[in-house]
Amino acid sequence: xxxxxxxxxxxxxxxxxxxxxxxxxxxxxxxxxxxxxxxxxxxxxxxxxxxxxxxxxxxxxxxxxxxxxxxxxxxxxxxxxxxxxxxxxxxxxxxxxxxxxxxxxxxxxxxxxxxxxxxxxxxxxxxxxxxxxxxxxxxxxxxxxxxxxxxxxxxxxxxxxxxxxxxxxxxxxxxxxxxxxxxxxxxxxxxxxxxxxxxxxxxxxxxxxxxxxxxxxxxxxxxxxxxxxxxxxxxxxxxxxxxxxxxxxxxxxxxxxxxxxxxxxxxxxxxxxxxxxxxxxxxxxxxxxxxxxxxxxxxxxxxxxxxxxxxxxxxxxxxxxxxxxxxxxxxxxxxxxxxxxxxxxxxxxxxxxxxxxxxxxxxxxxxxxxxxxxxxxxxxxxxxxxxxxxxxxxxxxxxxxxxxxxxxxxxxxxxxxxxxxxxxxxxxxxxxxxxxxxxxxxxxxxxxxxxxxxxxxxxxxxxxxxxxxxx
Length: 471
Ligand code: ADP
Ligand code: LRH
Hints:
Elements: E1 4-10, E2 14-23, E3 26-36, E4 40-42, E5 45-47, H1 50-66, E6 73-78, E7 83-86, H2 107-114, H3 117-124, H4 133-143, H5 145-150, E8 153-156, H6 157-166, E9 171-172, H7 173-177, E10 182-183, E11 188-189, H8 191-197, E12 207-208, E13 213-216, H9 219-225, E14 230-232, H10 238-244, E15 252-257, E16 261-267, H11 274-278, E17 282-285, E18 291-297, H12 301-309, H13 316-325, H14 346-356, H15 365-391, E19 397-401, H16 408-418, E20 421-424, H17 429-441, H18 448-458, E21 462-464
Bound molecules: adenosine-5'-diphosphate and 6-deoxy-beta-L-fructofuranose.
Adenosine-5'-diphosphate binds near residues 258, 320, 404 and 406.
């Protein structure tokens, strides 16, 4: 009997339920349901609409069952770092505050006063992003210490959604590492860091690795859907699932291209050398305790915001066309500047930045979009140089995965700027990586090597080669 696995993959911009089915060593993927995701404002804070997200998941499951498909298993991945706290009765004590909320402003520096940056990096191997969970929790400790005291459970977003499905509470490993609270060697919560920050160890759950079979749906949900299925942990950090599905990872740099651009390589050991710290590279936990040595780049969030600023008048592909038409325009902004993390208006912020750096100010949507794509490509090139410098080796190819790999202009630009072959696809790498973890847990695939070989065979990859530079 063929197994059917349902992947729930929720990114910061959209969520989808994708059904995977393995037949004759070929993986087939079918979209069941798709919905938008975006931050909402609650009591002046940027948050996720967590109730709606769970309702969307339920809608997707119902559609799957109504279409006559009975999934054997389901697993959820989302963006990293964000969490909720539950009380003794498993009721929500907090909103699902989003990482772009300003609550972490200044928190990194406060934490460094208690734990030096170098010590934190040596223990966790995690890059310094102002919104990491550690700084979110420290902010909560300053503003609402009583909430932290009452907390009985700390669950990251996918952990909470898995809890709603099963009634079981665990902290999945790949996502837990993004908190900057997990000891990279011990692969467990770092008690010394927690103690130093005055954050209680007791609310943290047991860390469970991907491929753990969490259990079945709650009786209530079985009744609602008229069917049961196993809940299996994928790499619940979306980037962990995406990288699990990078077909040819050996000599390839991956670029997971969605709301964020995550650029790096997979590695057997964490690299927390002075150089890696200096360039701010991370060692996030992956499937089978492999590490994702990578850096966050602001990513297509910038174009999502530009699109929103133009009242969604243009689609993503229209913005690409307009950028192409604006070929005479050129300006580069530092995409990783915090000013682009959550500006009031992305278009105005880009224009201000160009003005301040004495570059031509983009006025049309095409010019603004071109500035974003060109600036992203330059930042990818810088990251490639950094990776090659830290690791002392060169890479022949870049494998772009995720929604952004549909941008043909950007793919070609990356090939030209980096002078490397670019392989684009699969678009739904994250959902595929999620499904692959479930299939391994169900005994349908032996290991990640086999899984990657099947992914390579099953999905079309488009190649781009650097164009000759014209003098
Ligand atoms: P996330 O999972 O972080 O929400 P996705 O992997 O879904 O993000 O990627 C979303 C991005 O993909 C969008 O911001 C957009 O730039 C890009 N994208 C989606 N569709 C297209 C398209 N047709 N052409 C070009 N780019 C696209
Ligand atoms: C990408 C991602 C990334 C994290 C960020 C918060 O969706 O999970 O890996 O750094 O969101």
